[in-house]
Design goal:
This protein has 13 helices and 21 strands. The strands form five sheets. It has an eight-stranded mixed beta sheet, sandwiched between helices. Strands 1-7-4-5-6-3-2 form a seven-stranded antiparallel beta sheet, with no helix packed on it. The radius of gyration is 26 Å and the shape is elongated. The termini are far apart.
């Protein structure tokens, strides 16, 4: 039942208050109708006695205390859902913006999601193939996982997000349904156009649902955008039994909106001015990922955030790192070298990787190849640090060989380019070619049987002479030893 109230008791930016309310509910949807019959939407965010504080999703310009009628709808903010949302584009409030008309609605769902019983969760298994070697080979994305990308201002996270949406698929030919929900918050018009055009040009839009909140859209709408997207993803995953990958960018824009919203409520600020509930608010989004008993679908998240001043200890990446199962870290130095994607593999981590790779899932040697590549690249960093002290000319031939390996690893394995879509078998084969350039006695993470089956120095040299002749150098051409 709807209840109407005449007038407002106060207006403060995007927040308005009404008094004399007895039956209002937290998060209830409110319609604000002005004297020109223009309707603005809002939600109740605070109740004190008979006073309700309403967060308005549009500008409050033109509103006065006397010219507004508030309609309490008696229901939360909801989104209309059906399988027809696939291939469609919506704004941050869930309204279609692609000119294709309204969506046929199968059901309505509260955007705050449903409470998931922890006992009903099943452990994530199987991996999602992104076609990006630094992710698939070394930081594998598992169905039901939440794996954020930590970027910085000006880095190529938008290009990486678009590439993941274009290339991501389930491993093998399982016949299972796979789809993507993409949410952009606070993006500029040219960035939004880039995403839409990229998905259309590559023919993937038919299995993508987009939610776009632009930089000039109401900042309060930015707080709702990921919740609309995740509600759509939950419907497709847990009711329609699809495997859904949710890509959200930029979580930092979301948190900035949350800080502004908190400030307008005059709440006591926490670290760097962000609200004290930043952690729990982010958790309320991230924890909607997973696999649930009774559904064969899964919901996987890749939230993307830009670290202010490239500071990984900033509250946003700090809180995100505690909630999620790892991180993919983009590196400014690699970007300056022209390496794309500029993924720094050493601080990157996928905590669920070990449970979604190996025999029957990817390949039997995946775990050992990954561990050896990590160990070898860590040695490269040690040698570079040594060279910065004593100079390159003072390094041993063994150390110089590791420097050559490092260049090839960064420019060919990691820096595969934006148009390269590698299956997991190709990624692992390239990993073996790289390891075969190093002395056998250094590969202590690999057992003798595995080395015998895959190690081939001359084949590796021939491979890189053909595929990366400008990067391979004489330090790597010493032959098998």
């Amino acid at each position: 039942m709807s209840i109407y109230f005449k007038g407002l008791s106060s207006i403060n930016g995007p927040l308005v208050a009404i008094e004399g309310v007895e039956t209002a509910s937290y998060d209830e949807l409110v319609e604000l109708i002005d004297e020109n019959d223009h309707t603005r939407l809002g939600r109740i965010i605070e109740i004190q006695g008979d006073r309700a504080l309403i967060q308005v999703f549009e500008s409050t310009e033109g509103l006065s205390k006397n010219n507004v009628v508030s309609k309490l709808t008696g229901r939360p903010i909801e989104i209309g859902l059906s399988e027809e949302i696939l291939g469609r584009s919506f704004n941050g409030s869930g309204a279609p913006i692609d000119g294709l008309g309204p969506v046929f609605i199968d059901k309505h769902a509260d955007i705050n999601g449903r409470v998931i019983n922890p006992v009903a969760r099943t452990y994530p298994r199987n991996f999602i193939n992104t076609g990006i070697s630094a992710i698939d080979g070394l930081n594998t994305l598992i169905r039901g996982q939440k794996l954020p990308i930590f970027s910085g201002s000006g880095l190529s996270h938008n290009e990486l997000a678009a590439q993941i949406v274009r290339q991501a698929k389930l491993h093998g030919d399982s016949g299972e349904d796979f789809a993507i929900v993409f949410a952009a918050m606070g993006v500029k018009h040219d960035v939004a156009a880039f995403f839409k055009q990229t998905f259309l040009d590559h023919g993937v839009m038919d299995h993508v649902t987009m939610f776009l909140n632009l930089a000039n859209d109401p900042i309060i709408e930015r707080i709702l955008t990921p919740r609309f997207a995740l509600t759509a993803a939950e419907y497709l995953a847990f009711e329609k039994n699809k495997h859904i990958l949710v890509v959200m960018t930029d979580i930092t824009s979301y948190c900035e909106a949350l800080r502004e919203y908190s400030s307008s409520k005059e709440e006591v600020p926490g670290r760097k001015g962000y609200p004290g509930y930043l952690y729990s608010d982010l958790a309320s989004m991230y924890e909607r990922a997973g696999c649930i008993e009774g559904s064969t679908g899964s919901l996987t998240q890749i939230p993307i955030l830009t670290m202010p001043n490239d500071d990984i200890s900033h509250p946003i990446p700090d809180c995100t790192g505690y909630i999620t199962e790892g991180q993919i870290v983009l590196d400014r130095g690699m970007t300056q070298q022209g390496i794309y994607p500029p993924i720094n593999v050493l601080p990157s981590l996928s905590r669920l990787m070990k449970d979604g790779i190996g025999e029957g899932l990817t390949r039997k040697d995946h775990s050992s190849v990954s561990a050896q590549l990590f160990a070898a690249y860590a040695k490269v960093i040690d040698v570079r640090n040594l060279a910065s002290v004593i100079g390159l000319d003072e390094l041993s031939r063994h150390d110089q060989r590791y420097l050559g390996f490092g260049r090839l690893f960064e420019h060919f394995f990691v820096g595969q380019g934006g148009n390269s879509n590698r299956p997991i078998t190709e990624t692992l084969d390239i990993g073996w070619h790289l390891l075969s350039l190093l002395p056998k006695y250094d590969l202590d993470r690999l057992d003798a049987e595995t080395l015998e089956a895959f190690y081939n120095n001359q084949e590796a040299i021939n491979y890189f002479k053909v595929n990366s002749p400008t990067v391979i150098d004489d330090s790597l051409l010493e032959g098998n030893n």
